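Q: Sequence in, structure out?
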Amino acid sequence: MRASTEGARPRTAIGAAASTQDITTTTSGRRQSAPAAAAEGWVNVVNDQFSAGGVPAHWRRYDGPYGSAPRNCAIPSHVSVSGGSMHLQMGYEASGRCGAGWYTGGMMLDRAFASVDQRVTVRFRVVSGGVSGHHIIPMRFPPGAPWPQGGEEDYCEGSGSSGCHTFLHYGDTASTQVLHRHAFDLSQWHTVRFERRNHVVRAYIDDLRTPVWTYRGSSRTLPDTRKQVVLQQECRPSGCPAGTTGTEDIQIDWITVDNPA
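A: Exactly. Output:
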């Protein structure tokens, strides 16, 4: 699913100090600290804890229609920080750039942090308030490159809470892709990590030392284009919810981004 290219560019690009620990979680949601195993060769460029201060300036919020379906429309006010998390919320609005209808939240990390190889770690959950959307948490998208030839890495894409798929797009058609399903309960807090290095992708869920899936590709299946991290919420492929009530709240507890040293 193509990322948005709309929205105002942030004023600054701010990288946080490198973290000395990896954070893992139990399925009950408690945080646990662990040594930063296998951290050699990476440098931390983003460490957003969302504890205060609103949406960091190095995130560009979507504003208007996006993606490949005209029903997808975002509004910046549907991305906010409160209660120690960043929230991407799907809900009905009586007015907006796309008129009355369902609006979602989406955001793209500033281009200053783009990289060919990268490691992205996110602790999040999806909370349904009576409706359910489609989400890609996280994605990596190559701005300015031809699509899909430039590659798109949809690391955890799905609808509902039963799991998600990794889609690695490449080639001349959107259906030319590598895919793998991850089964876990997205309605509960989980930490996911997706690491791309030297045409190898590794996926981790909660246990950040042992990958649950490894894909060994090539420059063809994993094009060497610089990509930006994206967090994206959409209506389901079958359409937006019926009616005008209900919400879906994607809660991002924290996100870190590491680039090769």
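Confidence is low (pLDDT under 50) at residues 5-28, 30-38.
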